[in-house]
Backbone:
């Protein structure tokens, strides 16, 4: 079934460690996104990429980095994890301007 | 004022009831409007997608957009326990920097009681 695959599904991580969340899509969508979802705050955009080779900052980019080497993959890296980065992380993709975004099932990350 | 306002609920209704979910927004440039459904421990899934003003119906679901009032609604007829989920509205503008980006409401948690 076509869609977005995120890995891992959950992770417990010690503060200060480096972590990369993986996201792969097989829909050949141009744009990809990373969100975090926190109770009471909703979905907040971390970083996005409108096309392979380009990235941009969203609402809450600090402490996170992304790369977009090809169309299908959009990894999110936490260089040095902090407890405030405990959240559920969702990757999404969309085909074109204004088109709906399609989401993965998320990575549940706990930073201790 | 937040760009998109959505009552977080929770909203609890009996099975078979008509449910009305709403969002208001402030950015007049929004042209694309969506509703997502999110089950517990799952990602949001697209439920309805409309462009500009008007109504769109899909089975038991109807989406309405009133751009003059900056108000969108999702109606669920004959609600079922399987409709119990969090519903998120989302919208985006047509052009300009960041036009691929969606602005989301915080979601309304719905429970349909058998």
Residues:
């Amino acid at each position: 079934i076509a869609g977005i695959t995120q890995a891992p599904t959950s992770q417990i991580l010690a503060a200060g460690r480096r972590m990369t969340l993986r996201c792969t899509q097989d829909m050949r969508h141009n744009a990809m996104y990373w969100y975090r979802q926190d109770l009471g705050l909703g979905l907040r955009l971390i970083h996005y990429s409108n096309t392979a080779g380009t990235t941009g900052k969203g609402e809450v980019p600090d402490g996170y980095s992304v790369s977009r080497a090809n169309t299908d993959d959009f990894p999110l890296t936490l260089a040095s994890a902090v407890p405030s980065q405990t959240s559920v992380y969702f990757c999404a993709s969309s085909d074109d301007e204004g088109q709906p975004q399609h989401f993965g099932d998320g990575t549940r990350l706990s930073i201790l | 004022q937040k760009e998109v306002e959505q009552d977080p609920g929770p909203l609890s209704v009996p099975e078979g009831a008509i449910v009305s979910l709403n969002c208001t927004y402030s950015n007049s440039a929004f042209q694309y409007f969506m509703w997502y459904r999110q089950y517990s421990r799952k990602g949001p899934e697209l439920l309805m997608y409309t462009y500009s003003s008007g109504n769109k119906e899909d089975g038991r679901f109807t989406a309405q957009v009133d751009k003059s009032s900056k108000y969108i609604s999702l109606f669920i007829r004959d609600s079922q326990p399987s409709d119990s989920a969090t519903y998120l509205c989302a919208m985006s503008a047509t052009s300009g920097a960041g036009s691929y980006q969606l602005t989301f409401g915080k979601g309304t948690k719905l429970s349909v009681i058998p």
